[in-house]
Specification:
Blueprint lengths: L1 E12 H10 L7 E8 L2 E8 L2 H8 L6 E10 L14 E2 L5 E9 L2 H10 L12 H9 L4 H9 L4 E9 L5 E7 L4 E4 L3 E5 L11 E4 L4 E6 L3 E5 L4 E2 L4 E2 L15 H7 L1 H9 L3 E2 L2 E2 L8 H6 L2 E6 L1 H17 L3 E6 H4 L11 E5 L6 H12 L3 E6 L5 H5 L2 E4 L12 H22 L2 H22 L2 H11 L4 E6 L3 H16 L2 E6 L17 E4 L6 H12 L5 E6 L11 E5 L7 H19 L18
Parallel strand pairs: 18-19, 18-20, 20-21, 21-22, 23-24, 23-25, 25-26, 26-27
Antiparallel strand pairs: 1-4, 1-10, 2-3, 2-4, 5-6, 6-7, 7-8, 8-12, 9-10, 9-11, 11-15, 12-13, 13-14, 16-17
This protein binds fructose -6-phosphate.
The site of fructose -6-phosphate (F6R) has 15 residues, from helix 9 and helix 16.
Length: about 600
Amino acid sequence: MCGIVGLTGEQLKVTDLIEALERLEYRGYDSAGVAYLKDSKLNITKSRGKVEVLKNHLGENLDQTIQTGIAHTRWATHGEPNDVNAHPHFDCSCKISVVHNGIIENYRALKIRLQELGHKFLSQTDTEVIPHLIEEYYNGDLLEAVRKAVLKLEGSYAIAVVHVDHPDIIVGARKGSPLVAGMSDSVKAIASDVTPLLKFTKEVIFLQDGELIELSANALKIVGFDGTTHKCQPVTVNWSYEDAQKSGFKHFMLKEIFEEPSCIVSVLTGRIKNDRIVLEELEPFEKMLIDSKTIKVVACGTSYHAALVFKYLLENTTPITVDVDVSSEFRYKRPHLKPDSIVVAVSQSGETADTLESVRLAKRCGAKIVAVTNVVGSTLTRESDCVLYLNAGPEIGVAATKSYVAQLVMLYLLAFKIGQLVNDFVPQSSQLIDKLMRIPEIFENSLKSSDKIRELATKYKEYKHFMYIGRGYGYPTALEGALKLKEISYIHATGYPAGELKHGPIAMLGPEFPVFAIAPNDSLFSKMKSNIIECRSRNAKILALTNHDNQEVTELADDIVFVNNSEEELYPLLMTPIIQLFAYFVADELGLDPDKPRNLAKSVTVE
Ligand code: F6R
């Protein structure tokens, strides 16, 4: 997983490349590098570490004006993170330079062949075969040489290429990894996503798999891998450059949690009319939904937890069975799908490799795909039959926060819509829909308890283990709470259905192993209460998350956070900012950077 960027145009400086790279650092940050053309010379600087380290290496060169440049921020796949393996990579003549996101699966065979032809390799990366292949094919036409080279590559990639003989040209190519181009009058740019482009333009082109692009200061040309000319189809993105900044918050993660109320409004806008859910995108599939007995859902990580909430909701309100699979498992199973099957793919990035492969498997069975995603133009959107966009804006923090909330809201809408189609569950749904519309306000309230949550984080931060438990709708929340805590604070945390404790996990509990109990006063509270008592009797500290009216918890827990009273279906939503803030403050109190957790990257575009 990596971030790539390329800029060509007037009045550009090295520092513009660096600034663009900083916008992409969430995609990978174990090393970074730039290659820029100045006075017909290729200059390359790269180093292990974050972009900040690269900046220090560049020193005064940051102010140099350049014609063209490419840059890279890396999340290592082939070869450890070090200066040599950092991108950009270059050919034997040091005239061609390449940045790459993805994996070249046949790089070993290509490397051997190129070595036989006399090419010298310096790194352990799969990427380095690309500049050498281009060197082999180069005959004065860079676009054509890149085209011939990509025909030899197997795997997934987005690349950007420069050549000293073409000082104002960048060539990009995409297969399986995202690549977006943007153009203003003075600058043409290419990047792994739109965020670095927003400084220059809101007019962008999402390249399709199997396309190459040639950008020069004054022109832009797209061709297919077969050499035929393709139409440029720019779209306008509404994200402002400021959207991608921290707006005064210490971290993007905190900012993004505080953006959740407005995200909910964005998801709900135009979706509810007179208690009816409006999802026009679904219309062609309504008959299929009405007839379905089972709906399959595929997702990974946090998106999987959102899918579990959808399962509880739809199964409790309709006769439909919802079968949720982690994408990395589903893609290797016998799918048991038919042409009348509906598969819902949940992925905030729309680029998660396992989810995409699950979708492809489902499509081979003839199933119809409904995508729930945040990223316009992402691969998932192009491969699905219907797309429900979250419109949550860019999420820079690696840990999913506002995108999870947006997913939940969209999945509530989807479940209510299916409920209305299948059994017209209006009386119950109208009450829920009414509450759903008031959720942004309730979220604002919950966020006011952030000081209290910081205090709790300070109190609990030294524990080495955490058990999150919940029942029914509380179970996915327990899983998500544990995931959030472990991924950014590196504290071991595990989520369990509370009823499972006795079947093994309770053996671990004791004074050093606190329990985070998701315990609203819902239909399963009496069961949950017994589970909390079991934990207490093992001397485990109890931190409980409940609703205001549930004073019974006061006798059971060491510490309590309250949220507004609600219908039980909506607690997964209402409790989310609390579990997110708790994880955030623990990480921050431990002096960790919650935006860039170790070993993780924002979109997992490789298996
Ligand atoms: C956790 C997190 C990951 C993602 C997972 C799926 O905070 O962000 O677990 O949820 O990698 O990503 P998407 O939703 O982009 O498919």
